[in-house]
Amino acid sequence: MTGSIAIHGGGEFMPGDEGFLGALLALVPKSTRLIRIAVVPTAAARGRPDLAAANGIAAFERVAGDNGRRIAIESVRVVDAASAADPALADVLGRADLIHLPGGDPDLIPAIMSGSAAWAAVLRALARGAILAGASAGAMALAGWTWTPDGGVPGLGLLPGLIVMPHATAASWKQARARFGASVPAGLAAIGLAERTGVIMPPIGPWRVVGEGEVRWLPSGQREPQIARDGETIEH
């Protein structure tokens, strides 16, 4: 059994994002009486990782209460090579039912997580059926390739053949493509996500859009994106 992956356009944990967070919780079977959630603020390591995690914890607690789900949530502070190698932190990740990677700097998650004990634990959890969600830089890192201010780098590869473009709206789509699509290797598809909007990607079947904004899906070789909104699906 493999769990779902969810990507999000940013503005995570803010008012208006309750639908997406509720959808993540709903992916965990009702038979799971206590949902173990890990918020991993790796992308915020240069800034305020504890604040990023605290915002996530507060938002999940609020939404879980509104949806009648019991959770046990904690920050898993993987912010450098030493913490990524920490077996105690890896153990928490490996036992989680839902792992969330908030946004921040897009280069940090690939640099810190790649090849680490923490990432191996995330993959074990995903293989066991856990849900893995990433917002903004957290979503970008899951793709096959990711933009950074210093140029593109390989992502963690859970979404091969894809580049994720967060904070993308109808008004900013051209700028997003120019910014995030610069120097993209040939053959990659692109997905643009508005803030407070995400896509649930099950192991099999179409992707499902959740949130208040639009998602723009641009398969490789196409010039115009498919636009999908809350409740609609994307064939990929």
What does this structure look like?
- By secondary structure, this protein is an alpha/beta fold.
- The chain has a single domain, classed as Class I glutamine amidotransferase (GATase) domain (Rossmann fold, 3-Layer(aba) Sandwich).
- Helix content is 30%, strand content 24%.
- It contains eight helices and 14 strands.
- It has helices at residues 18-27, 49-66, 81-84, 87-95, 108-113, 117-128, 137-140, 173-180; strands spanning 5-8, 34-39, 70-75, 98-101, 131-135, 145-146, 153-154, 162-165, 189-193, 197-201, 207-211, 215-218, 226-228, 233-234.
- It has an eight-stranded mixed beta sheet with strand order 3-2-4-5-1-10-11-14, with helices on both faces. A four-stranded mixed beta sheet has the order 8-9-12-13, with helices on one face.
- A hairpin with a 6-residue loop joins strand 6 and strand 7.
- The chain is globular and about 45 Å long.
- The model has no long low-confidence stretch (mean pLDDT 94).
Which labels suit this protein?
single chain, 236 residues, alpha/beta, Rossmann fold, eight-stranded mixed sheet, four-stranded mixed sheet, 8 helices, 14 strands, 30% helix, globular
Topology summary:
Elements: E1 5-8, H1 18-27, E2 34-39, H2 49-66, E3 70-75, H3 81-84, H4 87-95, E4 98-101, H5 108-113, H6 117-128, E5 131-135, H7 137-140, E6 145-146, E7 153-154, E8 162-165, H8 173-180, E9 189-193, E10 197-201, E11 207-211, E12 215-218, E13 226-228, E14 233-234
Helix pairs in contact: 1-2, 4-6
